Amino acid sequence: MTPRNSLGVPWFMFDLTNKQLITSRIIPTDISDTKSIILTEVPIPGLNYQPVVPGGGGNRRISFTLPLIKRGNLTGNVLLLKQFEVLRNQPSFSFGLVSRQFNATPKVLYWWGIGTTPLVWWVAKADASHKRGWVNATGNPQYSEIEIELVLDESHPIYKMEAMFRQVAIFGGMAQQAVDAGVGVFGGRPY
């Protein structure tokens, strides 16, 4: 059985571009959270080492797989799949009537399971795989997995909230770890 959130807060993200709330009672698999640290080693002839020059940071990326299971109806999980389908397509209509050119791919507001304030992310991947044997009588999938990859928009104004939260949280983290280490020294259980 796929794990569910025990506190009842469902997994969700808000599609800012299409103004849709995407939710699921089933939570994603492990969430990968990466950000490259760019260092350049500069070779200098005759030197016994290569000085390291910091080159900045790469983009923060998160990725996960979300199971979409919907059984016992004619549409299967098609309605859920359509919500994710718009995440990988540029909006092509304005109010459903006029086609527009040069639209960016959607952005989402997301924070669930990654320990941040809500942040704005570009959708870099929203690919589906449909499980064999999980098709209903009308030919619609009942169990699919959506692979999501999001890239943080660090230029968005809402990112400043996260930077402030991070500065405050590091002091809380230091205090918490100091207490936990002290409790561990005196024989208590830190967790």
Low-confidence runs of at least 5 consecutive residues: none
Total count of strands: 9
User: Architecture of the largest domain in CATH?
Assistant: Beta Barrel
Look up the CATH topology of the largest domain.
Elongation Factor Tu (Ef-tu), domain 3
Q: Summarize the main sheet.
A: 7 strands, antiparallel
- In the CATH scheme, the class of the largest domain would be Mainly Beta
- In angstroms, what separates the terminal alpha carbons? 27 Å
Summarize the structure in words:
By secondary structure, the protein is α+β, with helices and mostly antiparallel strands. It is built from two helices and nine strands. The chain folds into two domains: 11-154, Elongation Factor Tu (Ef-tu), domain 3, CATH 2.40.30; 157-191. The strands form two sheets. The protein has a seven-stranded antiparallel beta sheet, with helices on one face. It has a two-stranded antiparallel ribbon with strand order 5-6. The longest helix has 27 residues, at 159-185.
In short:
This protein has 191 residues and is of the alpha+beta class.
Secondary structure: elements and pairs:
Elements: E1 11-15, E2 20-24, E3 32-41, E4 52-69, H1 78-85, E5 93-94, E6 98-99, E7 107-110, E8 119-130, E9 143-152, H2 159-185
Antiparallel strand pairs: 1-2, 1-7, 3-4, 4-9, 5-6, 7-8, 8-9
Throw out a few tags for this protein.
single chain; 191 residues; alpha+beta; seven-stranded antiparallel β-sheet; two-stranded antiparallel ribbon; extended
